[in-house]
Amino acid sequence: MGFLVGPWLAQAVRAAVDLSLAEHLAGGPRTAEEIAEAEGADPAATARFLRACASIGLVAYTERGFAGTETLAVLHREAPMSLRDLAASQSSPCLWQTWARIPEAIRSGQAQTAQALGMPFFDYLAAHPDEGRLFGAAMASMSAPVIREAVEVIGVAGATTVVDVGGAHGSFALAMLARHPGLDAIVLDLPHALPGAREAAVAQGLQDRCAAVAGDFFKEVPRGDILLLKFILHDWSDDECVQILANCRDALHPGGRVVITEILIDDHAPGIAPLMDIAMLATAGSRERTLTEFDDLLTRAGLRRVTVTPVEPPYAVIEATAAA
Questions:
Q1: Highest taxon of the source (predicted)?
Q2: Cβ proximity of 286 and 235 under 8 Å
C-alpha cells in the first residue's frame, strides 16, 4: 500500500509547496483558518489537508494549531538546500503525463513524451517557458548537494576557463567560480535557459566572470580547460552521447579535461538509481549507466578516463582527457 499511494504523497507535497505551508509556518504555529485566509483557500478543505500532512510528518499538531517540521522546512523557498522547486517540477503535469506511460516505455523501449506531450521533452520545455524555468530551477536544487561535493574534488591547476555544457542556470559553473577566484566560466545552453543563468550570476555577484551563451552541444562547444557535463549524458542515447563527448574533446585546450558528473548505476545496489533509470527511459528514451558503459562512450569519442571519484551517492565525478 505504501507503493500504491505514492502518487498521493507526491501530490500532497506539491500542494504543500503551492500553498506555501513552509513559509506560513516558518514563524511558528498557525491555525488551518489562518492559512486558508492567507491563501484564499477553503477553510474546511485546508483543515483536512493539514490533517493529512500531519499524518505523513510534514506538519505537527500543537495547542496553537499546526507547526512546521524539519521535513517541511526543506520546502521553504529560502532553505539552504531547498527542494521546493524540485517538488513542484517532479509532480508537474508534463512529467506525470509522461510517467503514466511507463508500461508503454518498457514494452517499446522508447521515450513516451511525444505521445504524452505531443513533442520531445526538451522541445516541450522550450515551448512552455514557465515550465522550462521551473524545471531548470528544480535541476539546480537537485544538483546542489552533488555540486557542493564535486567542486571540492575537481582540480583546477593551470585552468583559466570552465565551460558548463548544457548548464541550465549555471549552478555548477558558479560554484566553481566561488571556489576558485582565478577562473572564468561560460554557461552553454538553449536560449530558454539563459535568462535563469544570467539572473543567477548577478545574484551571486559573478556576472563579470560568467558568460551565458546560446548554443547546441550537438554542433559545437565553447573552448575551455575544464568542460563540465552534469546530468547531461543520462538524457541521451549512446550515439548522441558520443557526439556530445566528441565535441567536448574538440573544444579542449591542451591538457584540458572533460568532467562528467552522473549517477553510476550498479546492478545489485539498492536505492534511487535504478528507478531514475526507468524515469529516464520514459522521459527521454535514455538511461543511467555503469562505469563500463561510460568508459565505452569515452573511448568511442576519442577520450580516456583518468579518474573516477564517488560523491553524493549514487553520483560520481568522472574525469577524462583526449586520448593519445
A1: Bacteria
A2: yes
Backbone Cα Rg of the chain: 21
- Residue 278 clears pLDDT 80, i.e. is over it: yes
Closest CA to 166 of 114, 128, 215, 199: 215
- Taking the C-alpha atoms of residue 77 and residue 291, their distance in angstroms, rounded to an integer, is 35
Grid cell of 40 as nine digits: 484564499
DSSP 3-state of 239: helix
pTM above 0.85, yes or no: yes
Which of 95-104, 106-115, 267-276, 297-306 is predicted least confidently? 267-276
Q: Does residue 170 surpass a pLDDT of 80?
A: yes
245-263: burial string, b at 16+ Cβ within 10 Å, e else:
bbbbbebbeeebbbbbbbb
Q: Look up cell 575537481; give the residue.
A: 154
Helix (H) or strand (E) holding 121: helix 121-127
The one catalytic residue in 180, 234, 253, 268 is 234
Q: Give the span between the Cα atoms of 257 and 254, in whole angstroms.
A: 9
The C-alpha atoms of residue 125 and residue 146 are separated, in whole angstroms, by 24
Distances (CA, A) of 205 to 156, 177, 211: 21, 11, 13
- Beta strands, E only, the chain: 59-61, 66-68, 161-165, 184-189, 210-214, 224-230, 252-263, 303-310, 315-322
- Secondary structure (3-state) at 251: helix
| pLDDT of res. 104 | 97
Angle, CA of 282, 285 and 286, to the nearest 5°: 110
Pairing of strands 315-322, 303-310: antiparallel
Instruction: Give 257's strand partners.
Output: 226
Residue 74 CB burial class (10 angstroms; 0-12, 13-18, ≥19): middle
> Nearest CA to 209 among 226, 188, 184, 186?
184
The C-alpha angle 87, 93, 97, rounded to 5 degrees, equals 120
